[in-house]
Amino acid sequence: MVDVAVIGVGQTRYGMFPERTLKDLFHEAAINALNDVDKGLDPQDVEEAFIGTLSTGGAQLGNFAPLMMEAAGMIGASARHIENACASSGFAMRDAVAAIASGRTNIAVAGGIEKMSDLPREKNRLWLGISGDVEWERLAGTNFAGIYAMMARRHMHEFGTEKKHITMAAVKNRNNALANPKAQFRAALEFDRAMKAPNLASPLTFSDACGITDGASMVILCRADMAKNFTDQPVLVVGSGGASDYVAIHDRPSMTTLEGTKRAAKQAYSMAGITADDIDFAEVHDCFAIAELLAYEDLGFCEKGDAGKYIESGATARDGKRPVNNSGGLIAKGHPIGSTGTGQICEVVNQLRGRADTAERQLQNVGYGLTQNVGGSGAAVAVHVLKAVE
Amino acid sequence: MVDVAVIGVGQTRYGMFPERTLKDLFHEAAINALNDVDKGLDPQDVEEAFIGTLSTGGAQLGNFAPLMMEAAGMIGASARHIENACASSGFAMRDAVAAIASGRTNIAVAGGIEKMSDLPREKNRLWLGISGDVEWERLAGTNFAGIYAMMARRHMHEFGTEKKHITMAAVKNRNNALANPKAQFRAALEFDRAMKAPNLASPLTFSDACGITDGASMVILCRADMAKNFTDQPVLVVGSGGASDYVAIHDRPSMTTLEGTKRAAKQAYSMAGITADDIDFAEVHDCFAIAELLAYEDLGFCEKGDAGKYIESGATARDGKRPVNNSGGLIAKGHPIGSTGTGQICEVVNQLRGRADTAERQLQNVGYGLTQNVGGSGAAVAVHVLKAVE
Amino acid sequence: MTSYVSLPMYGANIDERMRLIAGKCKSCGQLAYPQRPVCTKCGGDQFDDTPLSGNGTLYTYSVVAGNGAPSEFDDEQTMTGDVLCGVVELKEGPRVMVRLADVDPEQLHIGMKLRAVIRRLYDQEGFLRYGTKFEPVGS
Amino acid sequence: MTSYVSLPMYGANIDERMRLIAGKCKSCGQLAYPQRPVCTKCGGDQFDDTPLSGNGTLYTYSVVAGNGAPSEFDDEQTMTGDVLCGVVELKEGPRVMVRLADVDPEQLHIGMKLRAVIRRLYDQEGFLRYGTKFEPVGS
Ligand SMILES: [Zn+2]
Ligand SMILES: [Zn+2]
Asked: What is the value of ipTM here, to two decimals?
């Protein structure tokens, strides 16, 4: 297997940009990624492209990837659109890695994009109402928040987790985003106020959820043995894992574990030759705050059922032993669905290269960084482990 | 690079099945593929899955692949949905090949599915009206047929191709389908009657076009060095190529060449160490009959501009020197969008193994078979070359 | 119409949903509800139709706040505000996500006894859609 | 609403479409119409707005038969039957796909001279959409 390195990353700011187009956003992400390749890269040298999107609103239903390639100035590349709900670009990353690892491709890009502000709120609910099994979950009248809420309720019931533990993750991430100029929500959130937020889908409140976001991101990868031609600071993709699970949570043996996360993490750790203990920091999929708690357990950062205590200990704060969602996470950095997975990679790569956009949020002495990107309520999960080259 | 082999293929019959569900169709394709693995395969041993669909109608917008994996009894596999318009499963095939070639995956599946009969005709036009650049082509009032019609008109203008040459491809394919029990349209079409068919989008008539189709297909792949554990008749994937192009035909330097086909074919031939002359038979993307003529030229089966003469010579008939669309092609076998690419692979694998469903259409002495799968009007093209193991 | 339950999809499994018809695996006896093409226990794909009793207990639940449910429930949410949903664990074993009916949100608790009733869901495309909801036993 | 031209998409580039504003690459002078973020000749991404004359010739065309056009054109097709579309090669070089107006289908031929006119396209979501069509010079 050919080793794979990241040589450049770029993303737009995340936010609501109703006046911008899909092409415009993707172009900006591409330019930022190309500019991040220190010694330069001709966009025409990109051979393969994997573009994640859910394509909210369906403006461009077919051939989405070739259209984005035009916007990126990479016409001709072997390009396809990857969909796995909110994990679309986590899988785009995984498949870009495989293309290079196979030896057939020298340079590939993984990208992601979503434009959610084009649609009126009502239509966004039509599109986003269900990310699980349409027939059963939608007819039950639940939305996406309700699904995670039911998982949260079980976690509280089975392990004594309290609402405050869930909200702690949201508050940590909102406050982390204050130092991230790319983040969508940059307003401090106090714990006491967050605990009093109105109900979204009980036990979750509006404070515990991500919003509606536009944004795009791109990761440029190449054979590790070519990386020094492009940058003195490549980052190695040492682990990649992917897994699926029952789409509907009612079919799963447990509602407090994402088996997809466990399986994907196991693959990624095994490929990297490490264990969870070796992970220094992580960007995990906190679409709802409970999801971050589940990630702690399923990634092996703490024991099953202990996520409440773990976040309460401060271990995952910016100054903790293993910072999680130092970027602000989906809750505060933003969750432009298709962009989230490669956006997480951007963050981890920047941290490993010492290129965080503000000194305040640059992590020190980090070796291994992890990303966890979840589709739907756990139907698909991609996990990656990255490491700076000494 | 690890060599890759096909060890089993399966597809549903193509047709209109309004009473069947997506899950039901995909399950049938999976069962047929699993049953085609001569020495058996536990579905739980499938590690990765690449599922092509345009997802007409949007019934299941997100996490399409994990849902299909449940229907196939392959829960847990690393599964994602690949979209590239009508080339969705051609790229699913390409990415399944890469996953195995990289060494990370031993057994993978590439599949495809479309359920087009769920929607009233009006909504199908909403979905299918445009496969190119939505903003410009759709506002111009053209449909998909109109785009290919404009390419046909230029081909006639530049090379003296006649309407009869276009219709010859349609007539050949319709009549080829008579012997294919899996085909959607199995009624003989006479050339004289076809020439008098009503206008669809001039110069194309209703005889020159594919219809609306439901169907699913699956290809099971594994490391070539493991293939004999599963079958005594594996088929090697010796070439794979993929490329994109300008989405809108007005942006392309030529409207009579699909640069994507040329680039993808070049990659596939180079990887296989062969030239176009070595291809014994092919399944090409004849969504409209003109597309088959373009494919002859762009794949190198004849010189640029000579496609009319080439089909008139009978070279691509079932009993010709290089049969093309012996299955009936998209025009007569059917074109369930997302299923078409892997459906073509099914056909080529069956022919190479001597397992055509009827003796009448079993080709003799065939070594190399090719598939060409086109997204939109050429924005994405996947080409594969397969070869039986002696 | 984007992601929604189309009439063909609504109609295809209406019997299974309204009458709670599970599939009983012919090979191993495992019950599948909702039904699925392949048995998750043994991989078999032949099933016998088996009606379930409609009795069960509440496994988990959520009160989805106003305007949160899919937009086809808008009319209802305008009238009632919240939508109550949960997962019921049926007496025979399978769990399924359902609408909860005729219950005060304050009254909801994991483990409470429920039973199936057929109720109106919503109007769409000119058709009134009915479905199975679950209500507390004794209510 | 599936694949369609949304109002934001319709509005975002309306100036470019109605007034035929091309982008002229600041690095190499290449004209891009329709505009695009990256110059296909040199890779530059800075452009100056340059209005085109609206004169050109017919490069290729098709008569799309009744009920073939996207469904937003249904009202028109009910009245007129066929929809005439083509690619115009503009005097300044770029080609673009357009609606053809005020022309007999029998009269269409590659190379015929055309000029831009603003015409009604269709109604959708309560808004009348206008766009640029091309008609024969002298008609
Ligand atoms: Zn069983
Ligand atoms: Zn230029």
From this structure: 0.94
